[in-house]
Amino acid sequence: MSATRVISVVICIFSLSIFGVNAQSSAELQKQRERIDREIRQLSESLKSTSSDRTLSLRQVNALNAQLRLREQKIETISNEIRLINNQISSNTRAVKELQDQLAQLRKDYERMILFAYRNRNAYNKMMFIFASRDFNQAFKRVKYLQQLNGSRKQKASEIGETQHEIELKLAQLEASREEQARLLAEQRSEQAEIAKEQGEESRVLRSLTQQEEQFKQEISRRQQELRRLATAIDQAIQRELEEERKREEEARLAAARLEAARTGRTVEEVEAANPVARKTDAELLAATPEAARLSADFAENRGKLPWPVRNGVVTLGFGKHTMGRNAIQDNTGIRIQTHQDMPVTAVFDGEVSVVIPMQGLGYVVLVKHGRFYTLYGNLRSLTVKKGDKVQVGQRLGTAITDSEGLTEVHFELIDATNRQNPEQWLAK
Fold first, then answer.
1. Residue 279 scores a pLDDT above 70
2. Model pLDDT for residues 337-360, shown as the tens digit of each residue
3. How many CB atoms sit inside 10 A of residue 374's CB?
4. Which of 226, 313, 336, 375 could form a disulfide with 361 if both were Cys (CB 3.0 to 4.6 A apart)?
5. Are 350 and 294 in contact (CB under 8 A)?
6. DSSP secondary structure string, 266-323?
7. Consecutive H or E run containing 161
8. pTM greater than the 0.90 cutoff
9. Residues 133-150: pLDDT tens digits?
10. What whole-number distance in Å separates Cα of residue 326 and Cα of residue 213?
């Protein structure tokens, strides 16, 4: 293979590898954009189902804010897609220029070969070229040269055809990229126009928030009381489990100390003093058994890959503190997921039902233990599990409740031992 051809192959492989990476990233961005579209449609349907002329509830405000946030995310996703396509266009444009330069050089080389072949087009000239050699070695080399020249002509012709084909492919990729770029730009403009159209609704919401601030404060206060009662009940349940684990640990430690004392003739106190045992952390206690340790490790390895507790849903209220209006603050111990009516709520990982309790404002609450981790599912009805049941990932726990406003939401929490985590960081994107 000639040096020129080697350079051509390297350039093509490099260009195609870049295109492959960008194509994969574009596919991921397209999948993300499709997910955002589904969530926007879901929120739009739920907001349309409520009367537009009545006072907004706290849940409706959360849904509207989530919808606007999703539209902004969609525009950002489209911008990233366009940026990738622009990179593809630039890369392919450079590749086409390099291939065209290479094609020009190949044609020059081919022309020189054709000219030489024309000058030595008959057998007499070829024979004279060989017989004019100084010695046998030179004659042999000239014979090989003529043979190679004939083969090189065929190879150059083949390389020219292949290079032309590569240029056609790159030009086709460029045209497809430009069409996709134009389509995305049009979609981005359409989304920006949609946001602009909703500015009036957003302004109305902001005015409503100011007018309803006291009402929201009262509703938030009620919700915070519900969450505090829930947190207290769950914390107490986890502490009871920790106390039982500490009791079992202490009993096992004392039994081992008594056996050692009987074997050595020392007192239990002397054995304990000679072999002090460090107090285990809450996480270590909850993962003390081999099964619990395995579940804990498997759960931790699935951070960012856990399935959602509902098949279709949109987070309308995230983890942590959120300001409504000027002074009304919501502090959420988990996330609120808006979904469809009668939506099954399922376990996100294998585990054991630790607690099932009814809570005012949250329907039934199910706490599932996964080694040292817990997941909590609130706002349920029609339970299909009870305390002590072993559950598998995807198993139905109950059905989401639909409130008097027609909104269906699930409260979901994730706890590491006694520390509440942001569930969105654990769920699959």
1. yes
2. 988 889 999 999 999 999 999 988
3. 25
4. 226
5. no
6. --HHHHHHHS--PPPPHHHHHT-SHHHHHHHHHHHHTTTTBPPSSSS-EEEE-SEEEE
7. helix 136-197
8. no
9. 667 676 666 656 655 655
10. 8
